[in-house]
What does this fold into?
Amino acid sequence: MLIQQKQEGAKGSFYIKENDKVLAELTYSMTGTTLMIIDHTEVSDALRGKNVGYQLVHTAVEFARANHIKILPLCPFAKSVFDKKGAEFADILRDK
It folds into this structure.
């Protein structure tokens, strides 16, 4: 599965698309150039149980690291991933 990214202005997403249909998506907003706020993650029933939600969050983390951005995970799912990963994602986590 290919995770793609799109960004228009301050809004963006990481997503998986097949046959012109988005099957999974993590959306975010940028505040300035150094903070990404993850606000929503959704995975279609067809991909549930395949760790796709985690893969979307991990892709956002790698993007943030490469671009020296901190992440504030407001989405409950993304926040739960950050809570589980603890020290592994601590370098890019921005506390409220």
